[in-house]
Every structure is written in C-alpha cells, then in structure tokens.
Amino acid sequence: MPIRKTVLTRIKAPAARVSRDAIVELLDKTLRTSEIPDSSVNGLQVEGAAEVTRVGFAVDASLAAYKLAAEKGCQMVIVHHGIIWDGIKSVTGVIHKHIEFLIKNNISLYASHLPLDMHPTLGNNALIAKALGLKNIQPFGVYKGSHIGFEGDLTKPETIKSMSDKVKKAFNGPTSALPFGPQKIRRAAVVSGRGTAALPEAIEKKIGLFITGEPIHENHHAALEGNINIIYGGHYHTEIPGVRAVGEFLNKKFGIDSVFLDIPTLV
Question: How far apart are CA 85 and CA 232, in angstroms?
C-alpha cells in the first residue's frame, strides 16, 4: 500500500491593519511636517479609508499612480510631490480629476516635500550621500531658511567619470555632467530634484562636485566660471530613495504591506 504524503499548506498571515490616522501621526512626527516651511501643503492632502492594509509609494501624485495603487489594493498613497501647493485655489480641471478618483476609490493621499528631502535618515539627500559613500557629512543647501542637502568628503579622490558612473549605478537612470571643475574631486554636495538654487553655495565653498537632479540652462556658464563639476541624476530618479525609505520605515513600525509605484518621468 503506497504511503500517503502529507501535504503541508502554508497559511498566509493576514495583512496588518493600521488606522490611517496612526500612519499620518507617525509620519507627521517623524518628518517634522508642521515645523518646516514649504510651498507644498505637506501631510494628509486627501482623506480616504480609515483602515489601511497596504500603502503605495510614488515620487509624484498622478492619475497613473492612483490607478496602479487601486489595482494593487492600496488604501493610501504617499508621495514626494503632492497636489496641493500654497493652499487650494479651486477644485477644477486636473485637480478635480485627482480628488474625484481618490475619493471614489477611498484612497488617502499623503505628501512630504521638503521634510522628506532634508530628513537625516529617511531623506533623499541623506540617502544619496550615504549611497555615494560621503564622509564627514554636514548640512548644505539653504532653502526657505533650512538646509535641505548635505555635503561631505569622498573616501578617495575621484574623477567626474568615476563619480558619474557611481551616480548612474546608485539611481539606475540616465545621467549628464558639466565637467568644469577640478580633475581630482575630494568633496561633493547633494541636493536632489530641482536643487540648482544651491549651486552658488557650492561654488562659494569651493566644493569640487555638485550633484542634483534637474539641469537648467544657466548652470553651464555658472559652473564653467565657478570652476565646479556638476552631475545631474534626473529629478525623478534622485527622489526615489526617500519614498522607498518611508515604505520600509512603515513596514518595520506597523508590519504593513508597501509597494513602490514606479511611474518614471522624462526629467
């Protein structure tokens, strides 16, 4: 008589259920949402389901991100770039479409702009500095009265080519460079996204390399005359690290499912 094999069925643990308000309270406290001046209205922008089992994370608030979140069963979307800037002026056009979709699908929208850029552990710039191995890290890039970036020493002198390769590997996206500074780079500064407003500060401090996301035309002559190298890693790609880190943070705190909603832009 053949021996019956016992088949063990693995029972999947139910997803953690967390209140929306608990998530908002933790993020507001951790990111110091109310303390940091910003044109973005940071925090909970659209209120959805009271209980959350899965959170989606994206760089930009967009209909594409919301639709993907709905497909993946998310009750909340956390983004770097939200939909409310300098307050609500009208609920029409594209903004109406965003809010309408979120409310119909019972999805909350939470945004964190400058608070997420500047956070010392979860922030875009701290994570970029860490990924590039910067040492002796100091605050850098004053904007609206706060430092949002970081500067630090390289572990060894690098060339613009070697640093471009490191940035490309770290962000997994296209890069471009202005090779107008010293051939041997010993110190670098980082401000993600559209961080070019900090270029004069980098020139004044004689920093060998300035890393940001989005290029602008005026940088060419400013960098050439200021004797500085610049690497652009892409606005989108340099602001992925923060939202991913927030996802991991919430997963550790609450055991809640998180999913990265990858909606790349051309910038």
Answer: 25
